[in-house]
Amino acid sequence: MTGSGGAAGGGCLVEVSSIGIRTDLAGVRRVAAETGLHIVQGTGFYLEGALPSSVAELPAGDLAAVMIAEIEEGIDDTGIRAGIIGEVGTMSLTDTEVKILRASARAQLATGAVISLHAHPNFRLGERIVGILTEEGVPVDRIIVGHMDENLVAFGPGLAHIDYHRKLASLGVWLQYDTFGAECYYDSTGLREPLDAERAYAVAAIASEGHLGQLLLGMDVWPDRRAGHAAPGRADRRGHQDHAGRQPAPGTSAVRFVTWPGPR
């Protein structure tokens, strides 16, 4: 996958599999060496359910210290230093999630690293999340709200939640539309991924309202968990990191492109 991304013109891959879903850091180094891609490794803490139980008991200062050390000194004994805080998991804003957000803010202020947020589908709490981070002193231009396209549509047609996007754009944060190529329904939840055409319409709408400089595009790749779930008769493009580069949706060519692999 990384090879196809590089062939399509990609030069940097942002790998935000954070604590809780992080796996093969040696593999990250190997992929960088073999492909020539610059890979930015993330630090931080994912969704509460994926984390060790000890995280709920540690104070925010201790969690911040872990992230700062991974940025400034390196992750364990791998020799890899993190370059971004994320993805930071948020769902319903539990006490632990709020504590992790405040710890992430402290790490950002100490290092200057950008914070990248996993804003869970169907939990449109971005304004509250951004408020927590800015209360701690994080500048809005150092905050990326991820998975915006997964908080765009309802089960039926139309951009049901485009006003949510407008509200976040007005705050000055980065909006990241990062699931291009995923067009599917989730039978267990009644939710669906938007069509790429719907993503493109949302991007064009937000850009036309003066927020082009706040937009990021990408493909959150989690192919192992999607194997065998493509619609009959069509390939599942989620596993192809060059999809948005080779097949950009109309109206998105001026927007910055970022991609990362890893579980959601």
Average of the residue pLDDT scores: 85
**Count of individual helical segments:** 9
Written as H for each helix and E for each strand, in order along the chain, the element string is HEHEHHEHEHEHEEEHEEHEE
**CATH structural class:** Alpha Beta
What's the assembly state of these chains? single chain
Q: Tell me the radius of gyration.
A: 18 Å
Beta-strand content:
15-25%
Give the N-to-C terminal Cα separation.
17 Å
List keywords for this structure.
alpha/beta, two-stranded antiparallel ribbon, 12 strands, single chain, 264 residues, eight-stranded parallel sheet, disordered C terminus, TIM Barrel, globular, 16% strand
Describe the structure.
The chain is an alpha/beta fold and 264 residues long. It has a single domain, classed as Metal-dependent hydrolases (TIM Barrel). 34% of the residues lie in helices and 16% in strands. The protein contains nine helices and twelve strands. The protein has helices spanning 2-7, 25-35, 54-57, 60-72, 95-111, 126-135, 162-171, 196-211, 243-246; strands at 12-15, 38-43, 84-90, 115-119, 143-145, 174-177, 185-186, 191-192, 215-217, 220-221, 256-257, 260-261. The strands form three sheets. The protein has an eight-stranded parallel β-sheet. β1 (12-15), α2 and β2 form a beta-alpha-beta unit. α4 (60-72) packs across α5 (95-111) and α5 (95-111) packs across α6. The longest helix has 17 residues, at 95-111.
